[in-house]
Amino acid sequence: MTTTAPETPETQLLSAETAATYAEWFACLAEPMRVRLLHAVAAAGSTTVGALTEQLGISQSTCSHHLRKLADVGFMVLSKRGTATRVSVNTACCTGLPHAAEAVMGMLARPRCPTDLPDDVTVRALRSEDWSAVRRIYAEGIATGNATFETEVPTRKSLEAKWIPKHRWVAEIDGEIAGWAAVAPVSNRECYAGVGETSVYVGEGFRGRGVGKALLHKQVTAADTGGLWTLQTSIFPENRASLALHYSAGYRTVGLRERIAQHQSAWRDTVFLERRRARDDN
To answer: Is the dihedral of CA 14, 16, 18, 24 positive or negative?
Structure first.
């Protein structure tokens, strides 16, 4: 058996076969010593049974027993090198095991973009006359203390140079700019041409009216059809509304970046999220 995760259709419950596979994996890890062994081997990259017995203070027979159980479900690869047995982690489990946890917790059965969009919000491409409103809304986001590490509003020139021209949007309510969304490239390397970093800001007087939902809907649908296969963003853990909004658009948490940077002289964490296009065969 390999640790390649079975496919999990986004709109269906786990199949009985997939559930049985995941249960076998988790059952194997129900023994604390196996968890310690898996961690020790993963940290070392590759090691020997003898080294593990010394490191964990266990007998060779106990170590070999648990390693065989881990190898049986595909977590470990055992190979003979002369009289020694070398142990390494099956690299497939580095993705298969996290995938299983996300599938069981329902993280893979996410919607692809927000629904129930507000009728009174219009989203259109950003125009030159919108920049003063965009920068004002940016300032209102900075003032919350939970929107960005920026402490001053970037200049129009820097934002124009940073944002991808075909992925700049504003939302209007009754002709007034209520929010904006934009995508910036993450790298100038050709292999990352379809990977963008997103921003969504809603004006102070328009929050709670579905403006962010309308902007994110436009942003992700435009990305899906406009050559962007991955969108990523970093959000302060305290910004629960923004996290919930992005989850509704098919984003998933990649990880928590602890003490990633200082904000107002204090170290802050960010939640790193990404959204993959449904199909990558374009």
So the answer is: positive
d(CA 120, CA 111): 23
Q: Where are the alpha helices (DSSP H) in the chain?
A: 16-28, 32-44, 49-56, 60-72, 93-104, 131-144, 156-162, 211-225, 240-247
Distances (CA, A) of 193 to 102, 125, 184, 197: 27, 21, 11, 11
Q: Where are the domains of the chain?
A: 16-104, 122-276
Q: How far is the C-alpha of 127 from the C-alpha of 129, rounded, in Å?
A: 5
CA distance 154 to 138: 9
**H/E segment holding residue 230:** strand 230-235
The pLDDT tens digits of the residues spanning 11-67 come to: 467 889 989 999 999 999 999 999 999 999 988 989 999 999 999 999 999 999 999
DSSP string, 106-134: TTTS--SS--S--TT-EEEE--GGGHHHH
122-276: which CATH architecture?
3-Layer(aba) Sandwich (3.40)
